[in-house]
Amino acid sequence: MNAGNALFIVGALLCLVGALSTVIARSPIRAAMGLLITIIGIASLFLKLSAQFLAAIQIIVYAGAVVVLFVFVIMLIGADTSAGPPKSGGSVGSRIVAGGGMAVLSGLGLLLLARFDGQPVRFGPAAVGHGDVEAVGGLLFREAIIPFELATALLIVAVIGAIAVARSKARPRPAPPESHESKRLFHGPLHPRDAQRPLSKEPAE
Amino acid sequence: MEALVKVFPANDFSLLAVILCLPLIGAFINGVFGKRLGREGVTLMALAAVGGSFLAAVVSFLVLRQAQAGSEQAARLTYVAWDWLSVSGRHDLGSIPIKVAFSLDALNATMCLVVTGVGFLIHLYSTKYMEKDPGYHRFFAYLNLFIFSMLVLILGDSLPILFVGWEGVGLCSYLLIGFWFTDEKNAQAGKKAFIVNRIGDFGLLVAMALFVYHVGALDWIGIEGGRSRLLEPVKLWPIGNVVPLSSALPESAAAWLNTPRYVTAASLVGLALFLGCAGKSAQIPLYVWLPDAMAGPTPVSALIHAATMVTAGVYLVCRLSSVFVLAPAVMFTIALVGALTALLAASIAFAQNDIKKVLAYSTVSQLGYMFLGVGVGAFSAGFFHVVTHAFFKACLFLGAGSVIYAMHKRIHDTDTSQDMRKMGGMKKYMPVTFATFVGAWVAIIGFPGTSGFFSKDEILLKALTSQIQSPLPGGKITQMTRAGEQTVLELWQWPSWGNQVLFAMGVVGAVMTAFYMSRLVFGIFWGDFKGWTIKRKWKAPAHHDHDDHDHPHHHHDPDEPLEGPAPVESPWQMWLPLAVLAALSLGGGFLNAHLLHLHPMDDWLGPVFATAAQNVTAAEGGLSLVLAFGIGAFALGLGAAYWVYRLQGGEPARAFVERMPGLHRWAQDKFYVDEAYDEAVVESAAALADTAAAADKYVVDGIVAKLTSGVVQLAGAGLRFVQTGKVHTYAAVMVVGTAAVGWFLIAPHAQARTVHQSAGQYGVVAAPGFGYQYRWDTDGDGQWDSEEFSSQMQQDVTLGFGENKTLRLQVKNAFGRTAERSITVSRPKLDPTRGPATVIQIEQQPDGTVRGVLPGQQPTGGVQ
Amino acid sequence: MSALGYVLEHYVVLSALLFTIGAIGFLVRRNVLIQLMSIELMLNAINLLLVAYNRQHGGPMTGQLFAFFIIAVAAAEAAVGLAIILSYYRLKASVHSDEADALKH
User: What is the pTM of this model?
Assistant: First the structure.
């Protein structure tokens, strides 16, 4: 076992252990820690796959922002929220069906993969500069500039949306200011005489 | 003047845009901001818009006069605003650009002056007449919009632009007739005018299509240039080659039925155009809307339904005179319809008591005169009558309005206040109105020296002497057929009796006009006032304010004797236009007084009608005869009316009514034409609508809509219990669905398709799938070719003609499950009835060209 | 065994396992917070797959670009999702997803 294999095994184990503890943990804060472990594992695998830039982004965005956000929310809500007894039946049946179905499906998929005979695909040597900041950054700002800008717009919209959704109770709005003269120019009856009269034949009163 | 010509060159005469846009701006501002502007603002805006437009029209007129001075050619000033669209006609005539273009020549410059000038006077009049109306700004918005539309109509340089204006004035007419729309009767009258006009507009649209097809142009110059193409024969009958079922008839009848019937395209175009003109200008059979249109305010009647809009039909005939003269039959129809309308309307006018109704029928009758004039080819005489009629009829309507305004002081019911039996003796109370009314009256009855005298006698003279020549020498259109040269159409010849008949009808109409107009004037202005008992120092009851139209149903008890002050003269805003118009009615005749050898108008319009005049012949002489008949008719009509209504105090008329109550009732009820139209047209349309409504209600709503909604409702009622609202339920269902799709993807499906590669070579290709392996049985012996599965997806098969072969395919998926299918490949038999197929081979040559080569042929030519 | 980290299939299997864990976690857990974390797990699994295939193909690194945008979208999704959880908690005083059943028949 050389150093490269060790890195892969460590990364893969981190991922699996972290993922399992995320899913199994009773307390959300433990789940968040599990997620953090998974993220670090994935970042190390990115390094192994010579995607240095993405590894950095993975750590910065996921570990630095997303997990911290989760932890914030857990703190806001209170870490022990899952402790209380469920108020409703808990939809046990559908959860079992869904979880079991998903497990069977994935098992079948893996079995399908195992049934393939053929040589495993081995990576060749990576090109110089494959996946470093310069290469990916150049790609981002040349070929992918439009999706990149759209992604920034999406993030801004998401931030505004998040604020709008999470804002506490809406304050009563101030009364609208007195309607301006010119606003009445285009509505109201065309004809002063019509003001008291209905347009149809129905009686006014 | 020089500067003007420099600023506004003839081919980009943007002053036309000024003439057009001012009323449009006025309409917009009054319509949108009128309520905020206040009465003064609205007045100023409306008057300034139309006044400015009038001034611009005067300047344009002067520029045009200078351009035409000393030239035989008709001068034209044009302005192209923008390219609108382009239509493609017959392919040999190319595509036809339609521009938003306007032009000014002698004809529409004159018309433009009349519209803006008379329009301005009537605007001025309306500021007082409509003063107390709550819809003051709305009224002026509509009126300005009308002026704009009318100007588009007369200035438009092509038929489509004219049509835009044509529809615009129709819309304004509708809006203004129904101006007091809260009264059901007025709204009905508006609708009637609108719908009857639609029938005419249909004709105009058909004419446009025919122009596109036959002439390939829609602008005036293009139509005039290509008018000779309208002389081609058009087969009307039979549709197709033979009449269906005609063989069942006796042979002679079938032959008669199957004989092709032709008309010239010019006749079709002319008739279609005349249908449009008859609608807009209220001729038989579409005249019925105009008398009802009097439901609008009186200035509207004066402007739209007397002076301007209703003469649009005459204008259109004059404008396309070069086309109309190609169809003598249509011209004679126009003249005859005009004369008949003149007589019919005059006879109805005898029995009417509502002064506006009398004037309305008089208008219809005078329009008939105009069509009589243009129908015999006297375009400038007919158009001259348009101008003089605009003066005296506007004056008469405004005068009537002035009288009604006075009557309104005490009588607030619209019908009663317009009833001439309630009037009388007004000359004492309203001297200015009286004087001006008399001025217009003498003009319309043709008192020698007045405008009506000159214009009507000119029409009568031309009716007697002028006729339309056949547009082709020989009067025949021949075509080469297999049987040799054949005459397909003999052109219609102007009948020898035609002129005498038309002239006689015109003279009778003139007598009738003189009689009923005199009856009207005597009824209003002479005798004793019968409206109410005049009391000096009478005071209005406190609850009365003068806004009758707010309370149309407010009636006085007819039995209660009404008291009131003496009627008074109208304010200056009302009598000033009257005075101007009366002066024009009296003096306008000298624009075209042929008797005195004074005819600037004819000289002015001459170049416009030069093309048309080539097809018109006018006999010399007849002048003294016409003069005698004209003056005789006037004297007879006036004398009879004076005898009946002044000397005998109306006794002979009453005696006549008593002796022939039926005839009188008949005339009073307008010969029941409206009722006949109701029964024939309206009822059948209503029946059709009822049928459609029933079908909609029971078939569409009942079966289609109810059934589908019922099914959806039922399904919804059942399925809603599936909706638990819990996210886990939905997730479980989704997983199950995903599993089903995954199962489908992985399960083996033995499917194959056959491809034909070349002659006799077929390939059977198995469908690919995830993890699939295949084995084949190609020789059909029930044994697999090899026991092993492989990834070979295709088997090739070679077949002769008419042979077929069956293969078997087995598919195994990644989990060892298999599926089987047998596939039969067959090749069709060679069809002996068809020769060997000719195959064109496409070869690419070394030089890059592609050639099609027939077998056994050297390649010739090539396509790049 | 010598080239454990250089074989594509290993990454594919690992990614499949991660995805399955995430999916089952999402389907089975009732705590909305953990469900959201499971979604992040699934997204990470996909990212891993994309980067692995990209490593095999070399070339223009489109796979890495895609992974980059998925990270961006995941960040946005986390922000909005957590905001929704916050207001849901305010409304129901609970973080159990099966108590959000206002949309039932």
Answer: 0.65
Q: Which residues contact B560 (CB under 8 A, 6 or more apart)?
A: none
- B236-291 pLDDT, tens digit per residue, is 887 877 778 777 888 888 888 888 888 889 999 999 999 999 999 999 889 999 99
Give me the helix-helix angle, A3-24 and A28-48, nearest 10°.
160
Highest-pLDDT range among B250-264, B529-543, B824-838? B250-264
Nearest CA to B594 out of B563, B562, B621 is that of: B621
Asked whether the beta carbons of residue A154 and residue C76 sit closer than 8 angstroms, the reply is yes
* Beta-carbon separation of B728 and C98 below 8 A: yes
B531 and B651 in one domain? yes
Q: Per the structure, how many domains does chain B have?
A: 3
ipTM exceeding 0.95, yes/no: no
Residue that is last in its domain, among A79, A111, A145: A79
CATH number for position A66: 1.20.120.1200
pLDDT digit string, tens, across residues B366-425: 999 999 999 999 999 999 999 999 999 999 999 999 988 888 877 777 777 788 888 888
**Residue A117 placed within a domain:** no
- Whether B732 is in a domain gets the answer no
Q: How far is B812 from chain A (nearest CA, A)?
A: 13
Q: C92: which 2 tokens? A: 């129901």
* Domain assignment of residue C105, yes or no: no
Domain that holds residue B819: 750-827
Residue B617's H or E segment, with its range, is strand B616-618
- For residue A122, the chain C residues in CB contact (below 8 A) are 3, 6-8
Q: Which residues of chain B does C26 touch, with a Cβ-Cβ cutoff of 8 Å?
A: 731
Q: Which chain A residue is nearest to residue B746, measuring alpha carbons?
A: A112
Q: Please determine, for residue B545, whether its predicted confidence score (pLDDT) is greater than 60.
A: no
- Residues facing B490 on adjacent strands: B476
Nearest Cα to B613, choosing from B324, B237, B218? B324
- Is residue B153 located within the same domain as residue B238? yes
* Within a domain: C14: yes
